[in-house]
Design goal:
Layout: H1 3-43, E1 69-71, E2 94-96
Antiparallel strand pairs: 1-2
Length: about 120
């Protein structure tokens, strides 16, 4: 073996040793992380048992009011008048709807924006 080959072999051996030590350090950090996580979990209170979980009242969900609501109309702007800006509009309130029929999507519509359906044609 020539001197140049010996120097290359020595350098790669040193590099292998450095990589091995880096790998051992990473494994030690991972093991330390698992150890710390187990210590933290041990200090936490135990999970509640099923009988300690909250239950729904016998008369149904709280403050559930069946019915439809419809929004208030946007104020009318006369022809030639200045349109209202969003800052001039108040929070749009809703009121009970006279219709008791549930709102449905148009036939052929996906029901949501960008839902992938054909849309109303």
């Amino acid at each position: 073996m020539s001197t140049a080959q010996m120097q290359l072999a020595a350098a790669s051996g040193l590099m292998s040793l450095v990589l091995f030590l880096v790998a051992v350090a990473v494994l030690a950090l991972l093991a330390g992380g698992f150890w710390m996580n187990s210590r933290v979990k041990y200090r936490e209170p135990p999970r509640p048992r099923p009988e300690e979980q909250p239950h729904q009242p016998s008369d149904g969900a709280a403050r559930e009011v069946p019915g439809n609501r419809e929004p208030d109309e946007i104020p009318y702007v006369p022809k030639g008048g200045r349109a209202l800006t969003p800052y001039e509009l108040t929070n749009m309130q809703t009121r009970p709807s006279a219709s008791k029929e549930r709102p449905r999507w148009s036939k052929g519509s996906s029901g949501s924006f960008g839902g992938g359906g054909l849309g109303a044609h």
